[in-house]
TrEMBL record:
Pfam family, any one: Alanine_zipper
Record InterPro entries: Oprl
Protein name per the record: Conserved domain protein
Keyword tags: Coiled coil
Coiled-coil annotated spans: 66-93
Amino acid sequence: MADSKFQFHYTPTGTGVISGPEVLQQTEDAINDVGAYADQASDNSEEALSIAKEARQTAQTANSTSSNALAEANAANEKVETLKQVVDDWDADIQTAIAQSKSAVDASTVAVTTANSAQTSASAAQTAAQGSAASAQTAANNAAQSLQTAQAAQQAAETAQSNAETAQTAATTAQTAAQTAEAKALEAAASAYAVRVINQALQVSATIQISDLKPQGNIKAGDTVVGTDGRMFTIASVDTSAGTALLSADYTDLTPSVSYEAAQALTETQQTTARSNINFTAGAESWAETYFNGHVDDYLCPILEELILENGGTQQEIDDAKNSAESETPSTN
């Protein structure tokens, strides 16, 4: 194989003459050495391989040319010196090709080193990119979950707000209905007539003291009053400033039938005594409390409670209205 500097030359015989086959052989040997070196360079880099192939192609072209020259040399030996000069010119071209191949090998070595470094960097970048991709995917998943949680929370808040607004509207409606029912209850209680008693005998169109009536509270025209004489009058009018009430011009006698020998001859004192004997005053008061006053509440209260509940009120509001009405009613004791 040629030395590292590739100083190619033909070696003539001892007589200074080289035969055509010898030229061909030496040329092939030189070209084969160049091809072997080019093949070795191609193992280090694809680029060097490409340049080496190009150099080999040039050498093969030179070989072909040398073959042609060999044919001419065989045909005319006298032109060997001229052929040698031509081959020497080829040698210069080959040396140039070899030099270029060496440069290509060096460049390919650098390229391989750079490629290896780039591959290492690319591997590190790929690893980092994969880690970043995994982190980005995790962040995306967390963001999607956070979005779903936020949307669910927003939906729950909107539902709660809607429910609160509905409850507030219902509460307002119930409060209004309760206030209306309470007003109607107070109005009904105020307009309902009551039976009252007084511990004295009553006379037609007489004026009595309101403070003597039982029970007290909301005394008005239209109420009935029963005296100790068993007569039941209607209150015609009430003078609150004077604290008096005016009785009606007619009455109903509630005195039970009592058989006397001289019934028409009983005096007022005797009649009062008779009523006292049969406990008339207490009986009339008990009757009014048992059969009249109590039945007014029994009749009106269920109707009012039903109206309150139908208009959105609650049982607690009904109980509060009852307690309020009871606290505002003066004691009858």
